[in-house]
Amino acid sequence: MNPIDTWIDTDEVRRLAERLISPERQAPANVREAGFNDSFVGFADATPTPADATPPTPSPATPIPKASVFVPQTAVPSISLPKQATENPQPFSADCAALADWLHQECGASAVFLINLDGNVLHDEGCAHLHFAARGMALNWKIRDAVKPVRLLVHAGSYLELIPLNHPQGRLILGIIVQHPINPTTLDHIREKSSRA
Amino acid sequence: MGKTTVSINLAHAFAIAGVKTLLVDADPQGSVGLSLTRQSRLLPGFYDYLADPGLPLEQLIVPTRLATFSLMASGQAGDYDTGGSMGAHLARVRTLLHQISHRGFDLCLIDTAAGLFGVSGDVIASSDAVLIPQQAEPLGIRSVPKLLDGLGKLRVMNPRLQVLGVLLTMVQNDLDDSIEAAKALRQLLPAELVFQNEVPRDGTFIKASARGLPAGVMENGEPIRKIFEGIRMEIARKTSSPALNPRHA
Questions:
Q1: Which of the residues A149, B55, B104, B152 has the least number of beta carbons within 10 Å of its own beta carbon?
Q2: pLDDT of residue A82
Q3: How far apart are alpha carbons B48 and B5 in whole angstroms?
Q4: Taking an 8 Å Cβ-Cβ cutoff, which residues of chain A contact chain B?
Q5: How far apart are CA A121 and CA A129, in angstroms?
Q6: Which long-range contacts (CB under 8 A, 24 or more apart) does A101-104 make?
Q7: Is the CB of residue B90 less than 8 Å away from at least one CB of chain A?
Q8: Distance from CA of B221 to the nearest CA of A (A)
Q9: A42-43 and B162-169: which strand pairing?
Q10: Angle, CA B160 vertex, CA B227 and CA B15 arms, to 5°
Q11: Range scoring the smallest mean pLDDT among A158-172, B1-15, B177-191
């Protein structure tokens, strides 16, 4: 008897294997990646500096149009979790999009993603390559029960803020790419806004 | 016998082919160093660089009698959590690899700790290619699906990562279970994802380790040297890199 067939879903393994031998994905030319790149310099201090005290505003000189954000071909499509019928009748995915729009306008976010601890993607704007790390941190690190966000300096002038959210949908991780660290006041606004999403 | 033995003998195969090779020990247990250099525990190395990126590269690189073969020990810093969160050392790993490349090495072969998380994940997320040594026994092969899934996710972080394939190790041709496990894996995976060459279970590896040598240079090590030369050529074909096949460049 085959020693592994009884233990392994062979179709699933072949699907995973085919994915690994697919050619390297090429990013479209002239687009700016929203997350890690070669100049990623690691974790940033989670304490905002005095200069961060004023709410960041989008810089008109260096906007990152949403349309230019690279979405890998294997990005997981957004999904909507089931919601109680008695609650907000608007689909949850629409709520996520509205929250993202608000983050773009009010916090100068250049890209936003929202995932849950199971790795399901509720909203994404070209950050699929960050989901694995974000979820890994959520599962293995202090962010799981943290109140404060975890901040990574993606590259010069670009931060990834990972904000744990207690939401009726469950524990969620909100990722925001911003030019300046988010100050505590703005963070409170984000939590309040997201709790209504 | 798995990652470390493959790393040492594969690095040696590239080095004797004329490829300027650096073998980095990124396993906190320091198996490469323990195998090849008796004083490895005294050497600064990979984890010391992660703790202090200001360490000059020349203090970390240990030459060998073979001009094209150098080592970097795991080092003294021993408080790293290899199963922890990813991304914590990504920048420093990438900086180290850039420095190694600028130093003129054609190949940097890194022996990581088991698993795809923590520092090992950061190394894979910074690398051009990954090779997966897999013991030819049923229990180990059952972990392959999880491994493939993890590598798929790492490719999202590092789209240029090439999965060279699974290399069957500790193959025992006198043991039916081992033969069946190897055969089953080949049936399960696409041919291009499994190396044609296999590494047998062989006492020569243990004798070589005891003497601090790659198995291929032992008196009766010629068959093993040929196997790793075959693996080297498979890798050179898969990557199409002239730097990894200098005799044919």
A1: B104
A2: 39
A3: 23
A4: 2-5, 7-10, 12-14, 16-21, 24-27, 36, 38, 40-43, 72, 74, 128-133, 136-137, 140-141, 152
A5: 12
A6: A102/A193, A103/A176, A103/A190, A104/A58, A104/A66
A7: yes
A8: 32
A9: unpaired
A10: 30
A11: A158-172
Mean confidence (pLDDT) of chain B: 84
DSSP state string for A21-63: TSPPPPPPTT---SS--TT--EEPPSSPPGGG-SPP---TTS-
Whole-structure pTM value = 0.61
Q: Output the pLDDT for position B198.
A: 93
Q: Containing domain of residue B121, as a range?
A: 3-248
Asked if A141 and B154 come within 8 Å (Cβ–Cβ), the reply is no
Structural Rg of chain B based on CA atoms: 17
ipTM for the assembly: 0.70
Report DSSP letters for chain A, one per residue: --TTTTTS-HHHHHHHHHHHTSPPPPPPTT---SS--TT--EEPPSSPPGGG-SPP---TTS---GGGS---TTPPPP------TTS--S-HHHHHHHHHHHHHHHH--SEEEEEETT--EEEESS-HHHHHHHHHHHHHSGGGG-SSPEEEEEETTEEEEEEEEEETTEEEEEEEEESSPPPHHHHHHHHHHHHH-
pLDDT beyond 90 at A30: no
Closest residue of chain A to B183, computed from CA coordinates: A2
* pLDDT band (50, 70, 90) for residue B192: very high
Closest Cα in chain A, distance from residue B18 (Å): 28
Q: Tell me, what CATH number does B174's domain have?
A: 3.40.50.300
Residue in this structure with the two tokens 């983050």, named with its chain if needed: A103
Quote the tokens at residue A155. 């590259």
Report the C-alpha gap between B98 and B177 in whole angstroms. Answer: 43
The span from the CA of B17 to the CA of B11, in Å, is 10
The residue of chain A nearest to residue B141, with distances taken between CA atoms, is A4
Identify which of A1-10, A22-31, A120-129, B141-150 has the greatest average pLDDT: B141-150
Instruction: For residue B171, list its beta bridge partners.
Output: B200
Number of domains composing chain B:
1
pLDDT 10s digits, B212-243? 778 888 888 899 999 999 999 999 999 978 88
In contact, B216 and B228? CB cutoff 8 Å: yes
Percent of chain B predicted with pLDDT > 90: 34
